[in-house]
Amino acid sequence: SPFGPPAAAAAAAPACALPATSAADNGLAIEGVLRRGEEATLRRVLALRDVPAIAARLTLRSFDGPYCPAFDTLRPVLGPPDSAPRLRLVGNLPLLAGQLLRFDVAMPDWPAQLTVSYFMSNGEVAHLAAAAHPAGATVRLGEPRMGFPGWDVSEPFGTDLMVALVSDGPLFATARPDIEPQQAYIAALAEALGRARASGRRVLARPMIIDTAPR
């Protein structure tokens, strides 16, 4: 494909981004999340590599938040566009104070452990899910049920980052705290991904920006 080298360059260009790329003869698809203002950098790189604007399909969500330190850890396991895990929000953004965070996760075509973590603008990470699911399943998370009122939106408002990871078996030997500092989680995740890589286990990640706002 003529878009191979530009695809690699595009993925590496923004300093704070998680762009997944796929290339074909008819164009280049780039989807992911990036710090507000980085999209212009990405477009400049594509232009310098002679990728016509009409040939690049960009599906990018921008954020303001302290999430850049997580990206070096997540980038090696970022899944290509249109591959599992796929995330679909129930409802529309922004989510307003008091509304519930609900979403579907499309699992890969192999049995996998699903780990969902929610990075907040205050520098903390909430862990929403860690469970095994069958191949090809679509998992709905966040629906209220007996003993679980749901995840309702509250302060701090802004742009949050949700990350779904699917893996061969659990990533962590023991459960993570419900909420922990981002720095602690990134360190633990880097170790877990290193162990998975050393043992040949598959891991794929998918980020999603969640905008929240007061009513």
Secondary structure tally, helices: 4
CATH class placement of the largest domain? Mainly Beta
- The CATH homologous superfamily of the largest domain is called Macroglobulin (MG2) domain
What is the 3D shape? globular
The ordered H/E elements are: HEEHEHEEEEEEEEHE
Beta-strand segment tally? 12
- Secondary-structure-based class equals alpha+beta
Q: Spans of 5+ residues with little confidence (pLDDT < 50)?
A: none
Strand order, sheet with most strands:
5-12-10-7-8-11
Any idea how many domains? 2
Mean pLDDT: 90
- Gap from first CA to last CA: 48 Å
Give the % helix.
10-25%
Query: What is CATH's topology name of the largest domain?
Result: Immunoglobulin-like
Strand content: 35-45%
Layout of strands and helices, then pairs:
Elements: H1 4-12, E1 17-24, E2 27-35, H2 39-48, E3 56-63, H3 68-74, E4 86-89, E5 95-96, E6 103-106, E7 112-119, E8 124-133, E9 138-141, E10 158-167, E11 179-181, H4 182-198, E12 203-213
Helix pairs in contact: 1-2, 3-4
Descriptive account of the structure:
This protein is an alpha+beta fold. The chain folds into 2 domains: 4-63, Histidine-containing Protein, Chain: A (2-Layer Sandwich); 68-213, Sandwich (Immunoglobulin-like), CATH 2.60.40.1930. Helices cover 20% and strands 38% of the residues. A hairpin with a 4-residue loop joins strand 7 (112-119) and strand 8. Helix 1 (4-12) runs antiparallel to helix 2 (39-48) and helix 3 (68-74) packs parallel to helix 4. The chain is globular. The mean pLDDT is 90.
Entry summary:
This protein is of the alpha+beta class.
